[in-house]
Write a structure and sequence with these properties.
Layout: E1 6-9, E2 19-20, E3 27-29, E4 34-39, H1 54-57, E5 66-72, E6 80-90, E7 94-99, E8 122-129, E9 134-138, E10 145-149, E11 153-158, E12 167-168, E13 172-173, E14 176-177, E15 189-193, E16 199-207, E17 224-233, E18 242-244, E19 248-255, H2 258-277, H3 281-291, E20 296-298, E21 304-311, H4 324-336
Parallel strand pairs: 1-4, 3-5
Antiparallel strand pairs: 2-12, 4-17, 5-16, 6-15, 6-17, 7-8, 8-9, 9-10, 11-14, 11-16, 13-14, 15-18, 18-19, 19-21, 20-21
Length: about 325
């Protein structure tokens, strides 16, 4: 087997992208390239203590810096980019979370306007034990401390949108973006439909862990050292971001209101079953209804994101996406030695 090309990227502070679309590529890569990346946290590394309030140390809209974009040679509209996460490892021994005025699921927002004061702006610094794989919660208003297991993930993965659009890195949609699903972890392959020549892939927004829904709007945010393998599937369409793990097929949908995000993810899963597993549409609708798991990804971003996931062991033995997930898993094992 030919050794894959490995490209290492450690961006300088002025080299991050803040949008999907509208940013020049930092590199051109061939399908099959391994990217060894550093990604900064959503605060660009500026929230380092409980005194570092986002409103004081960060400048909107410069939040959620992305490493990339990468121009993938041969990628054209109608193709699919496959991004396999080999490893996602916190780059520091600490992470930050916050409450932000007029942001989050349990507070007034700019669009859900109510006559009450905004939540107070506060910061929690989480200590990460990378050897023991734990994240330490320390309460601000009591002596409560709780160790939670680390579950590193990327909140933001995407390509340039269609129709000449430029989207903030804070927004999830059909191009991917800030989906904030905990399913985006090591061992998973993410499928993204190509909208422009070269696809223009970027990723960032590492989380040491995050609960489903990301209720307060901010996860355990940390810089990451991440290794991915990027491949290209010609003439295979992917209308909404999909993920494949060793155990599940996973569709996503991003929209407001929340029920529309739910509908998108469920419909995408039904159509995936029809295309690759031999179901008729009514049969897929019935089967998915009885077998699907539907965790929330985020209920705080500009668009909400829902997930529809289905156990592969319950499906007919068919190949999806030309077997790329299994192939990239083998390449990942070889990389890890």
């Amino acid at each position: 087997m030919t050794e894959p090309r490995i490209l290492t990227v450690r961006p300088e502070p002025d080299q991050y992208a803040w949008t999907f679309g509208g940013a020049a590529p930092v590199a051109r890569i061939a399908p099959g390239t391994v990217l060894d990346l550093f990604t900064e946290d959503c605060f660009a590394g500026r929230v380092r203590s409980e005194k570092d309030l986002v409103s004081e140390v960060c400048e909107f809209p410069f939040l959620n810096p992305q490493t990339g974009p990468f121009h993938i040679e041969g990628a054209e509209p109608g193709d699919t980019v496959a991004v396999h996460f080999v490893s996602i490892e916190p780059a520091r021994d600490w992470a930050a979370s916050t409450t932000v005025p007029l942001f989050g699921a349990l507070t007034s927002t700019h669009t859900t306007a109510t006559l009450q004061p905004p939540l107070a702006e506060q910061v929690w610094i989480w200590q990460l034990d990378r050897a023991r794989r734990t994240a330490l919660f320390q309460a601000r208003d009591s002596d409560i401390e709780v160790e939670l297991p680390m579950d590193p993930m990327h909140g933001t993965v995407g390509v340039a949108p269609a129709n000449l659009e430029v989207r903030s890195a804070l927004v999830p949609d059909a191009h991917g973006g800030n989906m904030d699903t905990p399913e985006m972890r090591a061992g998973v392959t993410c499928y993204l439909g190509v909208n422009v020549e070269g696809a223009l892939l970027s990723l960032g927004d590492g989380h040491a862990r995050q609960g489903e829904g990301e209720t307060c709007g901010v996860a355990v945010e940390c810089a990451m050292n991440t290794v991915v393998i990027v491949d290209l599937l010609k003439d295979v369409a992917t209308p909404w971001p999909r993920l494949e793990s060793d155990t599940h097929l996973i569709s996503t949908g991003s929209a407001r209101p929340l029920e529309d995000a739910f509908r998108i993810s469920q419909l995408d899963l039904v159509r995936w079953l029809v295309r690759d597993y031999g179901f008729s549409e009514p049969d897929a609708y019935q089967f998915a209804t009885q077998a699907v798991e539907s965790p929330l990804a985020n209920v705080c971003d500009t668009n909400y994101t829902c997930v529809a996931k289905l156990r592969k062991e319950w499906l007919p033995k068919r190949e999806t996406y030309r077997g790329v997930h299994a192939r990239l898993r083998e390449t990942a094992r070889a990389l890890r030695g």
